[in-house]
Amino acid sequence: MDIKYTSTEEIKLFQENLLRRELSYLQDKSPFYRRMFQRDGVDIRKIRTLEDLQYIPFTRKSDLQQFNEDFICVPKEQLTDFVTTSGTMSDPATFAFTNRDLDRLAYNEKVSFECAGTKPGDLIQLMTTMDKRFVAGLAYYLGIRSLGAGIIRVGNGIPELQWDTIIRMKPDTIICVPSFILKLIEYAEENNIPYRNSSIRKAVCIGENLRNQDFSLNILGRHIREKWDIQLISTYASTELGATFCECPYGKGGHHLPELVICELIDDNDRVVPAGETGELVITNLGLEGMPLLRFRTGDLARFHYEPCQCGRKTMRISPLLGRKNQMIKFKGTTLYPPSLFDVLEDIPYIGCYQVVLSSNVLGTDDVHVKVSVKEGSAIIPEDVTKAVKDKFRAKVRVAPEVEIVPDGELKDEVYNDKMRKALKLLDKRNNVPG
Fold this sequence. Notes:
The protein is an alpha/beta fold and about 425 residues long. It folds into 3 domains: about 5-95 and about 240-325, 3-Layer(aba) Sandwich (Rossmann fold), CATH 3.40.50; about 105-235, ANL, N-terminal domain (Rossmann fold, 3-Layer(aba) Sandwich); about 330-435, 2-Layer Sandwich (GMP Synthetase, Chain A, domain 3). Helices cover about 30% and strands about 20% of the residues. The chain has 11 helices and 22 strands. It has helices at about 10-30, 30-40, 60-65, 100-115, 135-145, 160-170, 180-190, 220-225, 340-345, 385-395, 410-415, and strands at about 80-85, 95, 125, 150-155, 175, 200-205, 230-235, 245, 255, 260-265, 280-285, 295-300, 305, 315-320, 325, 330, 335, 350-360, 365-375, 400-405, 425-430, 435. The strands form 6 sheets. A 6-stranded mixed β-sheet has the order 4-3-5-6-7-8, with helices on both faces. The relative contact order is 0.11.
């Protein structure tokens, strides 16, 4: 029987068996982890349960950057495909995959698309890149091919080309960043394209939250659905994760794939949090050959949900991300995360584009500067846009950042930079890295 439909207890025993196998592999093959085990006195024979993981040190992004090649577990001639992490919070690190890892990647996306309700014979338009050292586009391609569905590789951006493809080839599903759907709608409305009557019935969305913590659609999700009545499926993944959390059509969180990854949530004291509480996601890859990771700190904050899903799966489900630990903002005595700021801006109808810029001041606390552009032709635009935006922030999050009005085209060129994999909605200058 598929492990995802068994009991929580069976899933745990299944993962513990895979964990013991994984530790033996790392002991034998990984220069980094062999050195760690010896240095920290880790006897892998004593690590028998998921609870025993607490006796193993964490792996950090800095380890991956500093000792990158020491994570490689196979001869270099067995490495087939090379990518880099997104570098969202730090410099990107190189990841390499063997042929078996690519088969594993295809399996991951195949079962994720099945979870999303995608079937053999469906036609999917891929609006993410397969180049620029990016793993997601390749993973989608391999998974959809394995599933037996059709795929149209258009790549990111260029609304005109996206709509030309939709009209010509009539896909039923698109894969993209959700904010790009609003750009597609905007282009369609400006060019009299009857998008509501198009072939598109579903969007599999990456890179941005679509839901609140209670799984209702957030402001971005609602704005899409108000304009275009298509099914929205949210996913969460990363290069380091080596797996995908994909929603089923019931939309109650991303389903865990227990055969591919072990997940923990830890608090500020590095202890596993009680059930139902928020913590930083820590992952252990299962079954990766090339560069598997053990207790890797993702920096992402989330909750786990364990009640059975209506779809029949008994696996843990992950909440929408609350934010990234390194992106916590201390502003005027209030703790904030970027998604809460994005929600405020998404809810202002006359704003065409926005970017949040974080910096440190002389007092050692955070400053928040918000750049916004104003949509041309908006029905109602306040006389004082800056004051209106600040008032909206005070009403929603109790504090108001500095607000700057920027020409729409200029700001969109900065936010939707072709050199970046994701829209640059956050610019974190506190550590001199983009958010």
